[in-house]
Design a protein that fits this description.
Elements (H helix, E strand, L loop, with lengths): L1 H15 L5 H16 L3 E2 L2 E2 L8 H6 L16 H4 L17 H12 L32 E4 L5 E6 L2 E6 L7 E6 L7 E4 L5 E5 L4 E5 L4 E6 L9 E4 L5 E6 L6 E7 L4 E9 L3 E6 L5 E6 L3 E6 L5 E6 L5 E6 L5 E6 L4 E5 L5 E5 L6 E6 L5 E6 L4 E5 L14 E5 L8 E4 L5 E5 L5 E5 L4 E5 L2
Antiparallel strand pairs: 1-2, 3-4, 4-5, 5-6, 7-8, 8-9, 9-10, 11-12, 12-13, 13-14, 15-16, 16-17, 17-18, 19-20, 20-21, 21-22, 23-24, 24-25, 25-26, 27-28, 28-29, 29-30
Helix pairs in contact: 2-5
The chain binds heme C.
């Protein structure tokens, strides 16, 4: 909302003032570059040989030479090509608005000052018409055990099923329906009375005794809310957001007030996972940009970046005292990092399948991982490897493989039951020996 207001204000300013303040033109011009030009003028897709990712590259220009002469808009190719009768015309299939063209002109005239902060702004949500999720599409993208471990919440497509784990046959207690889109993420409040669901551009809160919504937040989001993390006092909720293929943002939300407090760009690509440290002081994030990051909960400042995966990082988990962080990658590796030194203590996995989800028991004794091929392992007795003993870095208990992709995992704190969610709303169960014991079907 704030962004809409800012844009409305900046356009208004261009209309009414003879010489608009430089800052307004800079922001407008650079948002034009970001939203209308960068798609075709970025590394890997530099049309006309031109990159518009930095001021230096822009000035250096493309096949025809310099594209901007700061101070001289009329002699700058970048300005000439956005005019109505230009040939070639930029962007090729569209005419920028008069305000946008004027902003570009003023910006170049004023020296083409670069303000990279616009690249970190949340994009303007594009309108979409959502088709309801087909009943047959029910991947279990999220699973969450209630804090007392008596109830399992299973996100299956657009609904959540709640199952009673205190009964031997784990009967269904009820279902939450209200989302039309696939539910991506779940979080319980510490008292176990409320479940939070994250879908497409909306969060819902549910009373789990009545199975009814008690509130929702549906402004300020731009895409799928792929992960949630709630502080133990239930006051601050972190939600991962982003457009498909776009940067990953983290929202800081005042949950009782149902209010967005702040938003920051956390990763250059889709964010897949968020996890709070057991003491609630730091937040780990993981994304398609091959990175995991650690943020300070108090002020959302970046603490560390963990670099080493060669593909998407799909899940993160902390050990008991948050001295170690485990990350699961599409590069078929699980890495266990020393949180402080950012060094890799242990590398796990047979490099055959991508790991999709991780869970670490609260006592830090068992780390569970599941894969896209229906496999998984329970790792215990993790040891730092010192090169020579690479093969003996942990005790591995393999989970009996099943013929389905697994998306999500949960484990009881005694490590005696592992739950993993697959397609068609199904959740498979394994015991501590890795034996597959039963299936919860929708
Ligand atoms: C859909 C892709 C696309 C978009 C979007 C796009 N361009 Fe281009 N751009 C091209 C192509 C293709 C060329 C090469 C055209 C040619 O040489 O005939 C080009 C060439 C240019 C050049 C000339 C480079 C040179 O040195 O020859 C400039 C300057 C330029 N674009 C600026 C822009 C600006 C500014 C925007 C946004 C307002 C923009 N482009 C948006 C595809 C795009």
């Amino acid at each position: 909302m704030l962004r809409f207001i800012l844009i409305a204000l900046s356009i208004h300013a261009v209309h009414t003032q003879a010489a608009a303040p430089a800052e307004t033109d800079t922001l407008t011009a650079m948002r034009v570059l970001r939203d209308e030009c960068l798609g075709c003028h970025k590394p890997g897709k530099a049309k006309g040989g031109l990159l518009l990712t930095t001021r230096e590259k822009m000035i250096l220009g493309g096949d025809s030479g310099t594209s901007v002469i700061p101070g001289r808009a009329g002699e700058s190719l970048l300005y000439e090509l956005v005019l109505e009768d230009a040939d070639p015309h930029m962007p090729p299939k569209k005419q920028l608005s008069k305000d946008q063209v004027t902003a570009l002109q003023n910006w170049i005239t004023q020296g083409a000052v670069w303000d990279a902060s616009v690249f970190d702004e949340l994009p303007v949500p594009q309108p979409v018409a959502l088709a309801p999720v087909p009943v047959t599409y029910q991947p279990v993208l999220a699973l969450a055990l209630s804090p007392d471990e008596k109830t399992l919440a299973i996100a299956a497509g657009s609904r959540v099923h709640l199952h009673d784990l205190t009964q031997p046959d784990r009967p269904r207690l009820g279902s939450l329906s209200g989302h039309e889109e696939a539910i991506q993420s779940l979080a319980w409040t510490q008292d176990g009375t409320t479940l939070i669901t994250g879908g497409f551009r909306q969060l819902k809160l549910w009373d789990i005794t009545t199975f009814k919504t008690t509130g929702q937040i549906s402004t300020g989001f731009v895409g799928n809310l792929t992960a949630l993390a709630l502080t133990t006092d239930g006051k601050i909720l972190f939600a991962a957001d982003g457009e498909t293929g776009g940067a990953g943002f983290i929202h800081r939300i005042d949950l009782p007030g149902k209010k967005l407090l702040s938003t920051w760009k956390a990763h250059d690509d889709t964010l897949y996972a968020l996890r709070l440290s057991p003491d609630g002081s730091s937040l780990a994030s993981a994304g398609a940009d091959k990175l995991a990051r650690l943020w300070k909960v108090a002020d959302s400042k970046l603490i560390s970046t963990y670099e080493g995966h060669t593909s998407h990082v799909l899940s993160v988990a902390f050990n008991k005292d948050a001295t170690q962080l485990a990350t699961a990658g599409a590069d078929r590796e699980i890495k266990v990092w020393d949180v402080k030194s950012r060094e890799q203590d242990v590398t796990l996995g047979d490099k055959k399948t991508a790991f999709t989800a991780l869970a670490w028991t609260p006592d830090g004794k068992a780390l569970v991982a599941v894969t896209e091929k229906g496999n998984g392992s329970i790792y215990t007795e993790l040891k730092k490897h010192d090169g020579a003993q690479r093969s003996e870095t942990a005790k591995q208990t393999k989970l009996t493989g099943i013929a389905a992709m697994l998306y999500s995992v949960a484990v009881t704190s005694d490590a005696k039951t592992v739950f993993a969610g697959g397609d068609a709303g199904k959740v498979w169960l394994w015991d501590a020996a890795g034996k597959q014991t039963s299936v919860i079907e929708p």
